[in-house]
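pasting input
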Amino acid sequence: SQQGEEDPQALSIQEGENATMNCSYKTSINNLQWYRQNSGRGLVHLILIRSNEREKHSGRLRVTLDTSKKSSSLLITASRAADTASYFCATDRYNFNKFYFGSGTKLNVKP
Amino acid sequence: EAGVTQFPSHSVIEKGQTVTLRCDPISGHDNLYWYRRVMGKEIKFLLHFVKESKQDESGMPNNRFLAERTGGTYSTLKVQPAELEDSGVYFCASSRGVSGNTIYFGEGSWLTVV
C-alpha cells in the first residue's frame, strides 16, 4: 500500500506558535499535496510539491519533501485559531490525480 | 466560478435501500473523481472519469457501486443495496487536466446507513 501516515495524529498548540506535521509514504511518487479539512467540510488544497522539489512556501505554509526518506513535513507558522482543522497529505504516484491519502493530523489552535 | 457541488449533503438511509449521490464539477473540467472516507479509515480513491469515460475505476469496492457520467458533465454514484459499512463521506473532485493540476474537492456527501 502507498498510503501515507501522518504524525502526530493530533496536535494542540496556542495561537501564535508554529505547527509541524509530518507525512511518510511507502513508494515512489510524482508529487505530494497537502489538504486541509475543516470539521464537516470539504478538502481544501493547500500546496503541491513535486518529486524534484525539496521545499515550497505559500504564505505561512512551508512544505519540505525528502524523497530519500519518503517523507514530507508541513509547517504552519504563527498559527491562528482559524487554522484549526485536519490536515492530510496525499501522494500521487503517476501524476493522474489518483491520490493516496494519509490518516490526517487533527490540529487544534487555542486562542 | 462555482466550485464542485455535491447533492445531497447528508443522507440517512436504511440498509438495503438505494442512494444516488450527484456531483457537478467545475465547468470546463474534463476530469472528475470520486473519493470516500468511511468511518475510521483513510480517504480512498474510487474512480476517475475523463469526460464521460471511466479512466480508472480500480478503487470501486464492489458491484453495489455504480458511477456514471453521461454526457461528460455531472456524475452520479449509486449504491444499491446500501450496507452499514458504506457509511461515510463521499467526496467528488474535478480538475481541468491531470499532470499535477490542482484538483478541487466538493463539500462531500455524508451518508449514514442504519
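fyi The CA atoms of residues 28 and 35 of chain A lie 20 Å apart.
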